[in-house]
Fold:
Amino acid sequence: MSLDSNTVKQTAALTPDDFRKLDASEKNAEVIQRESVSAWKDAWQRLVENKVAMGALIVLGLIVIAAIVGPMISKYNYYTNDLLATNQAPSLKDHWFGTDDLGRDMFVRTWMGARISLIVGLVAALIDLLIGVIYGGIMGYFGGRVDEIMNKFSEIIYAIPYLLVTILLLVVFEPSLGTIILALTITGWINMSWIVRGEIMQLKNREFVLASRSMGAGSGRLLFRHLLPNAVGPIIVTLTLSVPNAIFSEAFLSFLGLGVQAPVASLGSMVNDALTGWMYYPWRMLFPAILISVTMLAFNIFGDGLRDALDPKLKK
Amino acid sequence: MSQPLIEVDGLKKFFNVGKGSTLKAVNDISFSIQKGETLGLVGESGCGKSTAGRTILRLYEPTAGSVRFEGTDIYKLSPRKMKAMRRDMQMIFQDPYASLNPRFTVMDIIGEALDIHGLAGSRQERKKRVEELLDMVGLKSEHASRYPHEFSGGQRQRIGIARALAVNPKFIICDEPISALDVSIQAQVVNLLTELQNKLGLTYLFVAHDLSMVKHISDRVAVMYLGKVVELAPSEELYSNPQHPYTKTLLSAIPIPDPEVEVNKKRILLQDDATGPISGKNDAGSGGAFDLENSELVEVSKGHFVAMPRK
Structure:
């Protein structure tokens, strides 16, 4: 009660002097001071703060640069045999990574192999992306019967053992870069299409999509302007994580002798070549094996970091 | 009386929920709205009021019934004509956090409708129109380059309103536009809506579950329960003289900001064992204690309709 009477007394005592005019700044209450931040900038800032992921990105950058520049700066090439200098140990003087059993320079061959691995990994992942996004987008957007049939089809393909398909393909066609990529993408896109399908199904009932429909937007606009851009985070993460998969598959197939054919080098085939004398000439196995491991590790760590950056809700 | 702007006749929207069961979200509702009028549509959560709104806009295809806008049945329009019709009918959504595409700037969110209908010839024209719309809802033109997450709930809802206004609609369905906002902002948004109605001659269907707010803004109010309209009356009449037992129950639930009245107030509790609007293939149908399946709207006094059991 005392509070009440107090308020009343104060109200009674108010005079015009108790008021002051608002200055112009008060009119700008709606103005946002913070700099405008798009979703991409925001994600990039989070990625930069993640030291491990940035480390992985730098390592990846160095590997790419080395794969491009490496073979150029050496005075050797990857195919010339030098039977007077077989199985040389690494030295700073001439063969930096040593030579193999035919006297070919390991430094050049390792980076040529890295080139092949990266090309296979990136091209296979991009083809997966293209097919997966379109197929998954259609499944998720139209739903119902369309989704049922298309999903069954992808499940059937998924059920065929991938190794069997790959080996068959490589036996029927000439083993080459193109065949390997074809073999990897025949089943590789399915994962991506399922990710995209799930995202689209979740997004298509959100109110902003309804809002756009109520405006009269057609399927194309809804899918490509509203749905896919909002699913881009998971798509990029799946893409980043499918690159090391493809690299590993390529190395594995080459190791079995189903990959690119000599004299072209691949990291997998180099490891296979090195098997014969690995107790005596360990560097022949060491360099390609380390490079495969480091590349895959870096891609995986970077992919994880990217996921945390693009979808911070998952982490916290 | 002149021809109503919009006439809803026998509208039904059932969803198939599997195993032969149907969800009768909207089950035979009819009403009409005059030009410049606001019709409130109230009811508890899940009674089908949002579905009704979306079906009237043909965001869902109806199971049966018709909606005539200025005399044309919109369900019979070809996709092309429907697209043109969408310029006249717009919607303001419930959740301002979900209804704005997070990847778009405000400029693109509002400008999208202009793009779809080709209403802006050049970029400058589009920019000018968006700024005009932002000004109309009390936002600043600098906001156009911002992303939705940089705004508060009330500001976002105003962006949603600006988007709906972009195509110069005649009729706007407000789908619980204020239920996600806190009370001080609710008043702001409702006042903005009334102001725009007066200025632009808009007609509203105002869907809500906040009874006092609906009374404030609506000329007439329809009460929905389990997909049916149980009572429809001018708002003063409905609040002072409710006829249907469900309406009485609903009105008794409005809190009164006076502790003494509130303590002595008698809450009418709903004695209804209805399982909800889902019914199996062979069920006689739902409708709860009021047997709505077998009732029809009867005019008890001028403009006051109540669902009564069919004789």
In short: Chain A has one domain: 38-74+98-315.
